[in-house]
Amino acid sequence: MKKQDKQFAVIGLGRFGGSICRELHMLGHEVLAIDHDIVKVEEFVPYSTHAIQGNATEEAFLKSIGIRNFDHVIVAIGEDIQASVLTTLNLKEFGVQTVWAKAQNVYHQKLLDKIGADRVIHPEVDMGMRIAQSMASDHLLDY
Ligand code: ATP
Fold this sequence. Notes:
Blueprint: E1 7-11, H1 15-26, E2 30-35, H2 38-43, E3 50-53, H3 59-64, E4 72-75, H4 81-94, E5 98-102, H5 106-114, E6 119-121, H6 123-142
Parallel strand pairs: 1-2, 1-4, 2-3, 4-5, 5-6
The structure holds adenosine-5'-triphosphate.
Organism: Psychrobacillus lasiicapitis
GO molecular function: monoatomic cation transmembrane transporter activity
Domain RCK N-terminal: 5-121
């Protein structure tokens, strides 16, 4: 399968979702950028295939953009845990094959796991672990 064949959507264009969207676009993938803030949407027009304004907690909005046709959706809403959980739940109920979601804290992480997110990312914790592993391997290489 060509990488362009895979359809991605990023919901929430903050620092985390925004960097994922830019990178996928730069790598040549189809990526739909979604945010309820029109300023964010306009900012991501050059870094996405399409950029759409909408509230991802609304089922009618998700249906109207045909979200079920996307192979991989990432929910990058952090602060509004209710919105993140509801969006993730709707995506799984609509049958989106792969849903990844960003967690703000361990309680958020537990909820996302419970409702069926295929992968839960806790950026600060995950990055801390990777940095520690990198530090440890540098240390090993020194000896
Ligand atoms: P960052 O990735 O910058 O750390 P964050 O974890 O602080 O972000 P927020 O800033 O709360 O998370 O949300 C990220 C983005 O998601 C914002 O641009 C916000 O406008 C968008 N967003 C929040 N709720 C919704 C929603 N219901 N529908 C669509 N977009 C939303």
